[in-house]
Design goal:
The complex is a heterodimer of chains A (149) and B (503).
Chain A: H1 2-22, E1 27-28, E2 31-32, H2 36-58, H3 73-94, H4 96-110, H5 116-137
Antiparallel strand pairs in A: 1-2
Chain B: H1 3-14, H2 17-35, H3 41-48, H4 57-82, H5 91-102, H6 106-139, H7 144-160, H8 166-180, E1 183-184, E2 191-192, H9 198-201, H10 206-225, H11 243-265, H12 272-285, H13 298-321, H14 327-338, H15 347-350, H16 352-373, H17 377-384, H18 388-407, H19 410-428, H20 433-456, H21 463-466, H22 468-499
Antiparallel strand pairs in B: 1-2
Helix pairs in contact in B: 1-16, 2-4, 2-16, 3-4, 3-10, 3-14, 3-18, 4-5, 4-6, 4-13, 4-14, 4-16, 4-17, 5-6, 5-13, 6-11, 6-13, 6-16, 7-8, 7-20, 7-22, 8-20, 10-18, 10-19, 11-12, 11-13, 12-13, 18-19
The chains are: A mainly alpha (149), B mainly alpha (503).
């Protein structure tokens, strides 16, 4: 099931690529235009994906989790992914130190459930140390918040 | 400059305090990320790329190269003590290294891994030093048709030498090349698939892609699996291998070094594949193949040598042709370009301090690593005891800062997270990220070189066969594609002829 789903997604992406590439100037094989290589590559990808779909249909794989999944693993995974996208959304508005503090609190609590005191202290120190290490010492341009850090 | 004068000059460069400090920082950080599972050399080098902006080109490359070969040392420690590969090229070391640790032989396993790495690493640099100058001279005759056909050979190797399904590797290589076409067309400047955004008109960033597919994806997998690091509780004694250990390991180290170096040169191979080949070879050559997987020291010595020799080999195509043969070298190529140095046949003449300085620093770095990984092994064991629940938020933070530091564009962070999710799904469905990234890097160069070839030949594809070097590469590519399907038939034919001499 998983094999089939992956192959179908790949095929759909390849077909979208074919359609988009065909809108660019293709040129000819001896004088290719901007669209020639993307078009050929997307076509090749579509052909490969079709073979993968056929193979998945012919040889159905046993379904079930691929790789080790511990109890509550899915929830933890989604929490982490959500926290990261949330971080990207607020990073510009809140600035590095505050946004990082919030992200780290979620991460430290989410996966191995550190105690609140530990999580808060660890988050505060990683945000501040991160600021000192990356911005002050290494000179990385980190986003400042409305309060300047 | 002949190699002896060159390397003497190189040592004068590498021993300058700033360069020596860069070398130490590189191998130290390299060992650290090698030891930490989930943070490999690729992500770390991308991360430290912006940090090198303020450094000289020579110091930058010395440091970044140090991270690469340093990680090859550090990875074995985690494999042996925790049975988790510290980084991908140490997967095979788990097989026998962890078994040795369980039998109370963690010391000799760590010792032979470090000594084997040192010998192979040094031999690899020696090979690099001797081979690069003549190859650079030959490469001066390379034009777009030669580059294109060489890349074609590389793409074939990428798909052929992967460890999973070949069809999936082909799909990933095509997808990677397609992603490489996003941005402005290299010849006409027409925007392609940019969705009208400024972020994509520069193309998909290599750093967000690598950090996402390798760094973030790995963390997501570990978070889901609830990774528990359990350092094997044992006292590490007898780091110096015994005479018998040396006797068992000498030949595997020699073979691993040769194998790693030669395979490392080939585009598309990297440091991981040589370790698998070395392990298989040692098992086949061994008089006691049944001991493999139960703590055979040969199974540690061979692969650990192979991955270190491969780092020297992999520098050759980069320094002589300006072609990145694997993902790590793609990051290093990016570093060269950021510092305004075009690696390739002319580099040896135009930047001798850079070339020889880096070569000499690799000798120094290997010696430093031997010290870091034997007397100071206890330090790394302590780091392994930090629980993953504490470690992974920090790894994620480093990835975010690294991507932000390169472009200061929040969309690149989003792009990295998207690649992280895609990379996670790829791993779950058996697709490997390495062919995708490599094809992404080489794909742009391939499109440029074929279009330049066609301009040169006024639209005739015959230029790819008529030039001798290009023709040879093309023939080798054809052989690579055809041989696997022909070999079994040939063998069957020979077998039938042998079984039935009358026919």
């Amino acid at each position: 099931m998983r094999e089939l789903a992956a192959a179908v997604v790949l095929l759909a992406a390849a077909l979208a690529g074919v359609v988009e590439a065909s809108r660019l100037a293709l040129g000819r094989i001896v004088a290719p235009g901007p669209g020639f290589f993307p078009f050929a590559l997307a076509l090749g990808l579509a052909a490969t994906a079709t073979l993968l779909v056929a193979r998945a249909l012919r040889r159905p794989q046993p379904s079930g989790p691929a790789g080790p999944v511990s109890p509550g693993g899915r929830t933890r995974l989604l929490t982490v992914v959500g926290a990261l996208f949330g971080y990207a959304a607020v990073l510009g508005g809140l600035g590095f130190v505050v946004a990082t503090f919030l992200l780290m609190v979620v991460l430290f609590r989410a996966v191995e459930s550190q105690r609140w005191a530990v999580a808060l202290a660890a988050s505060a120190s990683s945000a501040i140390l991160g600021h000192l290490l990356f911005k002050v010492w290494l000179g990385v341009r980190l986003p400042p918040g409305p309060w300047g850090f | 400059m002949d190699p002896v004068a060159g390397v003497a000059y190189g040592f004068a460069v590498a021993l300058q305090p700033a360069n020596l400090a860069a070398c130490f920082a590189g191998v130290f950080v390299g060992t650290l990320v090698g030891v930490l599972p989930g943070l490999g050399p690729v992500a770390t080098m991308s991360l430290l790329l912006p940090v090198t902006f303020a450094m000289s080109p020579t110091a930058s490359i010395i440091m970044l190269a140090g991270i690469y070969y340093g990680a090859m040392y550090g990875g074995s420690t985690t494999s042996i003590l925790v049975n988790i590969p510290g980084e991908a090229a140490s997967v095979v070391t788990c097989l026998d290294g962890y078994q040795m640790a369980r039998q109370g032989r963690a010391g000799p396993a760590l010792g032979i891994a470090a000594f084997g790495s040192f010998i192979a690493g040094t031999l690899g640099v020696l090979g690099l030093m001797l081979l690069a100058p003549p190859l650079a001279a030959a490469a001066l005759r390379f034009g777009p048709p030669e580059i294109f056909t060489l890349l074609l050979l590389g793409f074939t190797l990428v798909t052929y030498l992967g460890s999973g399904s070949r069809l999936k590797a082909v799909a990933m290589a095509l997808a990677g090349m397609f992603l490489g076409t996003i941005g402005l067309d290299p010849v006409t400047g027409a925007p392609r698939f940019t969705l009208g955004t400024a972020t994509l008109s520069d193309g998909v960033g290599l750093v967000p892609m690598i950090m996402g597919l390798f760094g973030i994806a790995e963390v997501l997998l570990n978070v889901e699996a609830g990774l528990k690091q359990e350092v094997f509780r044992t006292r590490i004694r007898h780091l110096l291998p015994t005479r018998q250990d040396w006797k068992d390991s000498a030949a595997p180290i020699a073979r691993g070094s040769a194998l790693g170096f030669v395979l490392g040169i080939l585009p598309g191979v990297g440091a991981i594949i040589p370790t698998f080949v070395s392990y298989a070879l040692e098992k086949r050559l061994s008089r006691r193949p049944d001991t493999f997987g139960r703590g055979a020291i040969e199974g540690v010595a061979g692969p650990e040598s192979a991955n270190n020799a491969a780092t020297g080999g992999a520098m050759i195509p980069l320094l002589t042709l300006g072609i990145a043969p694997n993902v790590v070298m793609a990051v290093l190529l990016g570093a060269f370009l950021i510092h305004g140095v075009q690696p390739g046949p002319l580099m040896l003449r135009e930047h001798p301090d850079l070339f020889w300085g880096v070569v000499a620093s690799m000798y120094l770095g290997n010696a430093l690593l031997l010290v870091l990984n034997l007397p100071l092994i206890g330090l790394w064991v302590q780091i392994l005891r930090v629980p993953y629940g504490v470690l992974f938020p920090l790894i994620l933070l480093i990835c975010v800062v690294g991507v932000w530091g390169v472009s200061a564009n929040v969309w690149d962070v989003v792009l990295m997270l998207a690649f992280g999710v895609v990379g996670y799904l790829m791993r779950k469905t058996g697709f490997e990220p390495a062919p995708l990234v490599l094809a992404f890097v080489l794909g742009r160069l391939a499109e440029e070189s074929i279009r330049q070839s066609l301009l040169l030949s006024r639209g005739s594809l015959a230029i790819l066969v008529e030039r001798p070097i290009a023709g040879a590469f093309l023939a080798a590519t054809a052989a690579m594609i055809l041989l696997p399907s022909l070999l079994p038939r040939l063998r069957a034919l020979v077998a039938r002829a042998a079984a039935d001499p009358g026919a």
